């Protein structure tokens, strides 16, 4: 009898260890899911054997309100709740912008403040795939209404400053990187799976090969780790940027550790470290008669919490 009981208990715990878990989004209509992101980035560039170091800190709090659920697709209103950006540049200078800053002479901070609580829309499926994104650029129309005297060049410069960190392409890249981990089939503790995605920017496109492991399963959370490799598929191709023919040959990797809510599938905590290195090359032009190749290293630490 005692031996039978031991065998039953052993079987129970074994089944628990290898239980299949369907990790996916299970969001509720009308519910608001919040994410607070903080990224600290260091960019090191070398010009004529002299190093130039740029440090950036980007913070943002975003609310995702589920407005409809149909056939496994979520309609979501997205609204920025707080935005800030700080850049430390060579020479001991620092530039900072903050949506909470009350200074009418600070055009960028005022613009970030105007972007708060102005919803734009997206569609996402249960696997965290972004299916559609709309009305992001309307945020800039609201900003320009506040500053009607800006010249077209000033508007272009202001929009470029904001878009780089908080525009449509930046939002899409950040969201797709963050939500790319969902497995397509049920998994158990120790299971491994891969997901591929692409990060697009004005300078280059990066292919990302993500490899995840379900490290632990508790009553309320999944613990997932990830190792990702990044590469530029068109590294040898020149493209026109700001009137100059430029090519980027950047590769690297990043690691991720996250805690995912078992019920909703929403990320509760995430920490990632990114390391990229390579070169950016310019063909000879009026500004650079001999052309130039700039070695570059990028390091970034990003944390995400659900509150």
Question: Could you explain how this protein is built, in words?
Answer:
The protein has 307 residues and is an alpha+beta fold. It has one domain (22-305): Lipovitellin-phosvitin complex, beta-sheet shell regions. It is built from five helices and 13 strands. Strands 1, 2, 3, 4, 5, 6, 7, 8, 9, 10, 11, 12 and 13 form a 13-stranded antiparallel sheet that branches. A hairpin with a 5-residue loop joins β11 (244-261) and β12 (267-282). α2 (107-114) crosses α3 and α4 packs parallel to α5 (168-178). It is globular. Residues 11-16 have low confidence and may be disordered.
Provide a short characterization of the protein structure.
This protein has 307 residues and is of the alpha+beta class. The protein is built from five helices and 13 strands.
Approximately what portion of the residues adopt beta-strand conformation?
Answer: over 45%
CATH class: Mainly Beta
- What's the number of domains? 1
Which stretches are poorly predicted, pLDDT < 50 over at least 5 residues? 11-16
Which secondary structure elements does this structure contain, and how are they paired or packed?
Elements: H1 2-17, E1 32-47, E2 50-70, E3 73-89, E4 93-98, H2 107-114, E5 120-125, E6 130-134, H3 138-146, H4 152-166, H5 168-178, E7 192-200, E8 205-217, E9 221-231, E10 239-241, E11 244-261, E12 267-282, E13 292-305
Antiparallel strand pairs: 1-2, 1-13, 2-3, 3-4, 3-5, 5-6, 7-8, 8-9, 9-11, 10-11, 11-12, 12-13
Helix pairs in contact: 2-3, 4-5
